[in-house]
């Protein structure tokens, strides 16, 4: 029988590559379900991606901020704008921590929050 990659000495490299791929596929799958009208299914994948990214990066990181925003957007779609805003405010705080004020991601995040407030009223 051949070697299994998870049992070999290259185990950590295999896990690292798998994690990198999941990091791409989970948010993409979540966005696809969301776009196709199954926001709840999309939310499941996006929340998994957020959890994985939080575990990987242990703090402020652009990928974590992007995942926070994606989850917030799905909550908006599901009609829970308050919960969506919670995630989007976390996104803004993280981008401000990463970039300070003068950065396009900070501006986009502020626009997203403003659009959520428009939906709320």
UniProtKB/TrEMBL annotation:
A Pfam family it matches: TPR_12
InterPro entries to which the protein is assigned, alphabetical: TPR-like_helical_dom_sf (IPR011990)
PANTHER family registered for this protein in UniProt: FUNGAL LIPASE-LIKE DOMAIN-CONTAINING PROTEIN, KINESIN LIGHT CHAIN
Protein name (record): Kinesin light chain
The organism of origin for this protein: Didymodactylos carnosus
